[in-house]
Amino acid sequence: MKKVTKAVFPVAGMGTRFLPATKSIPKEILNLVDRPLIQYAIDEARDAGITDFIFVTSRGKSALEDYFDGSPHLEQTLNAKGKWDLLDLLHSTSMDSGEIAYVRQREARGLGHAVLCAKRLIGNEPFAVLLPDDVIASSTPCLKQMIDAHEETGGNIVAAMEIPWDKTSTYGILDVTKTRGSIVNIKGMVEKPAVDNAPSNLAVIGRYILTPQILMHLETTEEGAGSEIQLTDAIAAEIKASGNVYGFRFEGERFDCGSKAGFLQATVAFGLSRPELYDEFSRFLSSIVATKVAAE
Ligand code: UTP
Question: pLDDT tens digit string along 128-140?
Answer without folding.
Answer: 999 999 999 999 9
